[in-house]
Amino acid sequence: MILVTTANGATGRPMVDYLLEDGFGVRALVRKDDARAQELREAGAEVVFGDLLDLREVRAALDGVQRAYFNYPLGEGLVEAAVMFAQVAKEQKLELIVNMSQFQSRPVARSKTTQNHWLAEQVFEWSGVPTTHLRPTAFAQWLLYISGFIRRGRYAMPFNGDSRVAPIAGRDVALTAAKILASPDEHAGQTYRLTGPVEYSHRELAAEVCRVLGKDLPFEQITVSTFLESTGLLNDTAKLKHFEAMITDQQEGLLAGVSDAAPNITGQPLVTVEEFINENRSAFGLGPDKSAG
């Protein structure tokens, strides 16, 4: 039995499907009973409800589990949640934890969120529970965050146009984690930096998106506040500070480079920007991809 936290998220949801397809029992941890929880049940997962900051609920979620995926939403409480999760995992003698961290995880990170990811890594190491740390770069899902701008004829990002990144699709991170959970002895104790297949500057990424969409939308850098306002998160101070730090991290090249860790682990090619856009055409105001069938 494998516990998947944030089971309705960009990595958790596809991970549930991958693990079920491989014949594992999956317990999906979510916050509330809604249509998405019902979809998880229909897929074959055992759905449980809980808060990673509630020790009693963490104990219940991990009871009878052998392996687990730990992912905490961007915001306050990560280190406390990691302490609770590690303690219960130690009590339960888990075979493996796959811990979601960040590409630029380091003790001197300017972002408190990024620093907390590094601290969470240390917590799991101190616990003695076999752990694999995943450090993915920026997700391709960032393109969905600005899909509203794109539908209105703008390509607007809060990042410097010359900063470089190799965006990775959430489902590639999910498949990587699923393969690791399937082979704990092979991956325990490892830290993997995960990227997409191609590195772009943000201007180059904008040009590629526009090529696929068949639109001419010049790159436009906006403030983090403007970006968060467009997504309804203007008052989220944690995200504001983290994204501002990410801008500087990218300018300093801390998210640059391409890693082959994910395709080596999964044995499959990674999702390209073109494939990601075509998988999410409706978000960008496009009809079905007629060439796909």
From TrEMBL:
It comes from the Bacteria. Residues 2-248 form the NmrA-like domain. This is NmrA/HSCARG family protein. Signal peptide: none annotated. SUPFAM superfamilies: NAD(P)-binding Rossmann-fold domains (SSF51735). Pfam families: NmrA (PF05368).
